[in-house]
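Running this now, will post back.
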Amino acid sequence: MTPEEWLAGFETKIADVQAKAEQFRVGLEAAGTTVASPDGGIRVGVAPNGSLTDLQLADSALAGKSGAKLAEEILKLARKAQRGAAVNVAAAFEPLGGGSEAMHMVTGYVPPEEPEEPPAPEPVRERRLWQHDEPETPPPSPPARRPRPPRDDDDDFGDNTFMRRD
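Update: finished.
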């Protein structure tokens, strides 16, 4: 290989890395995410690094909810947005380090998905002692005890004593 061929190949590699770096920069800038609640009453935005950049609450988000419930929904949406941003950052990094140790390091910090909402629990029905609309089930009987072996009282007072005087 001539020095000119080597230099041309090197310049091609540099141009390729520069193009991938620019693609990464553009992808990273767009990696932030905004997530909304199903009814659209809460919107949470995060930057590519996961920091909170926007929080919008409609009046409908406040209606009939306790502060604790509202905070729980906001945090859940923030975690979902942070995960989305982390996935976007990993996707933006793919052209630079796909399959590399650096790529595994980036994807290793992607938070897990939020679990699906569990079904609402059945309402607890109050039951009073004087209500007899359901048949009572007797309490379970205690486990059966094993019978003791018969005790022979004579064994303790027999002639086999070692304290006997002869």
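The longest helix spans residues 67-97. More later if anyone needs it.
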